[in-house]
Amino acid sequence: MAKKAIMILAGGGGHTGYARILAEALHGRAELSFLAPDDDQISRRRLEPFGPVRTLTKPRHPTTQTWRFTFRLAKAFYQSLGLVTGDLDVVVSTGSNFCVPPALVAWMRGVPLVNLESRVRFTKPSRTAALLQHFAEVTALQWDEQSRILKGTVFGPLLPKPTIAPWNGGYVLITGGTYGYRELFDAASESSLREVVLQTGNMDNRRYAERHPDWRVISFTERFDELLAGAEVVVSPPGGTPIEAVVYGKPVVIVRYPKWTKAAGLEDTRIFAEKLNAPLLLDLMPSALEAAIEEAKRRKPPNLRDGTGQLVKAILSLGENKIN
C-alpha cells in the first residue's frame, strides 16, 4: 500500500515545534511535506530532514499593521492555491494565522484537515483553531480543559522526544522565544545570577553580551536540546520551551508575557504553570526572578502523558474516502 501524502503546516516558533514532533512520529510511515513562513529559515532547517519544505507568506507577525495583514492574507491565499494540491491525503494545521489560507484551500479541494489547538489555551480558543474546527475532520485538543472551549478530541499534549541524556550544567537557561522578551532579560541582567545562558531570539543582544561576558548569550541555536539537557532551571514564557524542559526533567519558571495576551492570557498562563508544577513569575523585578528560580529548584517536574501517538493514529486513518 502506498504511503499517504501528508502536508504539515508549520507557522514558526512553537507551531513548528508541533510540526517537528509530528514529523518525527510520522517519518517513514507517510510521505511528508511542509509549508513554512518564507522568512523563517529556522523552521525550514528543523523540518527539512523529514521532507521537502516549501514556503508561504505569513499574514501577521506581532507588529504587523492591519492594512498590511489584509494584503498579506490575500497573497497567502493566492500562493496556497499553487501549493496545496488535491492529491494530498491529509493536511495538518499546527495553529497560527499562517495556517488559515492553506488549510482552507485544502478543505476546498476535499483534502481532510486536522486542526491542532495550542497547548497554552484554556479559557478561550485561538482564532485559528476556532475557525478551522468548522472545516476539520479532526480538531485535536491537548488538555481536558480545552473540550469546554472547542468541539474536538482530547489526545493529550504533544511531547518531543529527548535526544540526549539530561545532566546538570549548573546554569539557568533564560529564553524569550522567537521575538525575545526585553523586560525579562533586563531583570536577569540586573540580578545577581552568574551562570546564565540567555537566548534572545530576534532581539539585538549585544548589550547583554557586553555587560555579562561570563554569560553565554545567543540569538538562536539548532542545538537547543543540548542547552535544555544541561540546564539546572529553565525560565521561559508559556509555550514549547517549558514543555521541552519538563521532558528533560528540568524545573521551570513560567514568566507571563503581557504582549502575548492574544496567545495566552493571565488565566491561561496560570493554568499552564500549574500543569507543569512551575512557579509563575508576574513581577519582573530581579529579586522576584531570583526567588522564583530558587522555588523552582524545590519543585519536581510532572510526568505528562504524551498524546502524539494517538494523534498520529488519527491522522493516518484519514483520507480513505477523500474526494479528488
Explain how this protein is built.
- By secondary structure, the chain is of the alpha/beta class.
- It is 35% helix and 17% strand.
- The protein has two domains: 4-158 and 306-317, Rossmann fold (3-Layer(aba) Sandwich), CATH 3.40.50.2000; 171-297, 3-Layer(aba) Sandwich (Rossmann fold), CATH 3.40.50.
- Strands 3-2-1-4-5-6-7 form a seven-stranded parallel β-sheet, with helices on both faces. It has a six-stranded parallel β-sheet with strand order 10-9-8-11-12-13, with helices on both faces.
- The protein is globular.
List the SSEs and their pairings.
Blueprint: E1 4-9, H1 14-26, E2 30-37, H2 41-47, E3 53-56, H3 66-83, E4 90-93, H4 100-108, E5 113-116, H5 127-132, E6 138-141, E7 153-154, E8 171-175, H6 182-190, E9 196-199, H7 206-211, E10 216-218, H8 224-230, E11 231-236, H9 240-247, E12 252-255, H10 266-275, E13 280-281, H11 286-297, H12 308-317
Parallel strand pairs: 1-2, 1-4, 2-3, 4-5, 5-6, 6-7, 8-9, 8-11, 9-10, 11-12, 12-13
